[in-house]
Each structure stands twice: as structure tokens, then as C-alpha cells.
Amino acid sequence: QLQLVESGGGLVQPGGSLRLSCAASGFSVTNYAMGWFRQAPGKEREGVSCVSILSSITTYADSVKGRFTISRDNAKNTVYLQMNSLKPEDTAVYYCVRYSGRLCTGSYNYWGQGTQVTVSS
């Protein structure tokens, strides 16, 4: 059974850091592009980052460039999102997604239950 389970969210002060994890099961993350989306209350869903099957190919939303880093541990079948210099506007539910193909283009067809990230003093 295909499953994506996010963890690592929480409450953090502005300027702080969090690392989100996405444990995948039922498929290998080496065969698909993987990404993170987020959605804040009253706002549209926003693509945050993606990593293709070639880990050297990554994409980031302009709002997180230079602060977030996506990575993948193939041995653990897990995808991470390291978030530094967090801002209140980063507050959202973060979802891990699996794209339908190997590149960070096209659609995604699976996502997890989400993990809440709250940035507040």
C-alpha cells in the first residue's frame, strides 16, 4: 500500500529551524520526483520545493529560496525539507507529494496527511 507520512512540524520562533520528514512506503522514492506543498488558512496551495530522481535537480518557490533545502535519503526511502530562517508567513500545513514521473514537472498523484508548521513568537 502506497503511503506518505510526514513528521517534524511544530511551533518555532521566527528565525528558527525545522526539518520535515516524509517517510514513503509502497514504492521507491528513487523512481519518482518528490516534493513539498503547503497551504495556509485562506490561501491557495503553494508548491514549495521538488527534487527529481536526479537529486542534483531541485526547484524552490521564490519565497523559500536560500532558506529551505530539499533532500532525499534513498536508503531510508525518505524525503526531507530543511527549513531555516523561518518567518511567520511560512506558517502552513506542509504536505509531501509524489509526482507522477521522474521530473519536477507535470502533476503529482499522491500526498500525505500533512504536518503543521507554525512560526510565531
Keywords:
mainly beta, seven-stranded mixed β-sheet, four-stranded antiparallel β-sheet, 0% helix
Structure report:
By secondary structure, this protein is mainly beta. The protein is 0% helix and 50% strand. The protein is built from no helices and 11 strands. The strands form 2 sheets. Strands 2, 4, 5, 6, 9, 10 and 11 form a 7-stranded mixed β-sheet that branches. The radius of gyration is 13 Å and the shape is globular. The mean pLDDT is 95.
Helicity, as a percent range: under 10%
| Count of alpha/pi helices | 0
The helix-strand sequence is EEEEEEEEEEE
Largest sheet: 7 strands, mixed
Uncertain runs are none
Instruction: Estimate what percentage of residues fall within beta strands.
Output: over 45%
State mean pLDDT (0 to 100 scale).
95
**Shape, please?**
globular
Structure classification: mainly beta
* End-to-end Cα distance: 40 Å
Number of strands: 11
Radius of gyration: 13 Å
SSE topology sketch:
Blueprint: E1 3-7, E2 10-12, E3 18-25, E4 34-39, E5 46-51, E6 58-60, E7 68-73, E8 78-83, E9 92-99, E10 108-111, E11 115-119
Parallel strand pairs: 2-11
Antiparallel strand pairs: 1-3, 3-8, 4-5, 4-9, 5-6, 7-8, 9-10, 9-11
